[in-house]
Design goal:
Chain A is built from six helices and eleven strands. Chain A is α/β, with parallel strands linked by helices. A six-stranded parallel β-sheet of chain A has the order 8-2-1-10-9-11, sandwiched between helices. In chain A, strands 3-4-5-7-6 form a five-stranded mixed barrel. In chain A, a hairpin with a 3-residue loop joins β6 and β7. The longest helix of chain A has 18 residues. Chains A and B meet through α1 and α6 of A and α1 and α6 of B.
Chain lengths: 279, 279
């Protein structure tokens, strides 16, 4: 697995062509799957400035909820996501089946697991790491904020299971989700990438700038890949900031008049993933 | 646009994890879109031999119906697809917006259009090419089989509109759909490709055989790209036939335990499309 930080930016107008809640849920599920398939570290939902003020605030938060839900292991979902009507179709979401979603209820020393901080006392925090039995909690000797999901390493398995906050660095450990309600430019500033890939059909095709693209990817540490929405390509000017910018058309000779955001995300990540794995 | 014939093969078990008809329809719609985005000429649904006899015969025909429906221009859909309950959710299918789906009701000499053969007499065939007015038919001076969609070129625009069977060769003109109910091997024999790309996570990664892959693509004329289904990778042995075969993993370092067929199709076509456009 490559060691770069990869983030993907999509607009809050992503769901605007879909009114059916089940299909909206499914469409976001497609994005969640793609992030995990290609080891993406962060998904950022920015505000599409081409649309009327605050039109998609709710959609943006809905997308963040669904993506967060998918990224949460099965055993923590009920604790982390209390029932709400917008999430009533989450049952149709495909599982990620990533290493950070362990399916085994037995724990071993050295193993990593996401856990939910249930309660805290002076000595530390009780954590649900998905062991058999609802009240079977592990203990962390640090005072953590409660009602949150963190990642832990299991340090002792005895009568009491002891865990410490930690994350592995050799396997994919899921993605973070940000719903910024800010412009793309300001959302990028929050993440602070050193290299931004702007995907647009109006740029040079990937095949015509292949070597340049590969070299730039190679030297980047924090990569951001940004996509337009159903209404238009990216309308903001992203040149002239702290990051290096390349504009690229990753779908040369497209057979259709438009390429949908989810299609562009998968098509682009497929090529980027190939390149990141060849260096 | 490149001049190669590209066909994609997916198993009839493709929908087996989905029971909801609306989601089944949507999932097939994702495939239809991807075919058009990447200028694919043919989609073949083969029989997944890893599953019990004839388990997915209906799904296979359903997929063919939905894909055929999507490939049919709006103005011919009612004629070509009489109402059936399996197709009740076709309203959610995203439009292809390809050149073979003209939205203009005015016709010009030299223009190409799909048409539906409505009736025939001794002099020729009356064809619906989507002009204003339901009974406003064009005439073709050939006796064609009726109740079928063919492609036509408009040769005369006067009181009568005259058309002749023809297809353009410089724009993408949609895909053919085959539901074979046969094994992958026998389905491939029907199409008779000269180069077969077998996608499987157990093969060398695309980045490690990039140059070899590019050269083979380059010299192929009829390319077939074959995918496994939800139950397993491809189980049939495809080596030793008239075609050249390469096995390749197009999703190196996948973050998830499995890659879904629709994800693999998009990821693979993205890379193949880039390579076909660079030669």
């Amino acid at each position: 697995m490559h060691k770069k930080q990869v983030s993907v930016f999509i607009p809050d107008s992503f769901l605007s062509e879909t009114s059916d809640l089940k299909l909206k849920t499914y469409k976001v599920g497609v994005i969640g799957r793609v992030l995990a398939v290609f080891n993406v570290n962060m998904i950022v939902i920015y505000k599409d400035l081409s649309q009327k003020d605050d039109k998609f605030v709710e959609d943006s938060d809905f997308m963040a909820d669904v993506l967060g839900y998918m990224n949460t292991p099965q055993y923590l979902r009920k604790r982390a996501y209390p029932i709400k009507s917008e999430l009533k179709h989450v049952g149709i979401l495909p599982p990620l089946r990533t290493p950070h979603h362990p399916t085994d209820a037995d724990v071993k020393v050295g193993e990593f697991r996401p856990g939910f901080t249930v309660k805290r006392n002076k000595k530390g925090t009780f954590v649900d790491i998905g062991m058999n039995g609802k009240e079977n909690l592990a203990f962390c000797k640090e005072q953590l904020s409660v009602n949150k999901v963190f990642s832990f390493r299991i340090t002792k398995v005895a009568k009491e299971i002891i865990v410490t906050p930690d994350e592995p660095n050799d396997v994919y450990w899921g993605y973070e989700t940000l719903s910024t309600h800010k412009s793309l430019k300001n959302s990028l500033k929050l993440v602070n990438p050193d290299f931004v890939v702007e995907t647009t059909r109006y740029a040079d095709t990937i095949n015509s700038i292949f070597n340049e693209f590969e070299e730039k990817l190679d030297s980047a540490d924090k990569l951001a890949i940004v996509f337009g929405g159903p209404y238009s390509s990216i309308t903001e000017e992203l040149d002239g900031f702290s990051w290096d910018l390349i504009k690229v058309n990753t779908v040369p000779s497209q057979g259709t008049e438009t390429v949908r955001t989810e299609e562009a995300v998968l098509a682009t990540l497929s090529i980027v993933n190939m390149l990141l794995n060849s260096s």
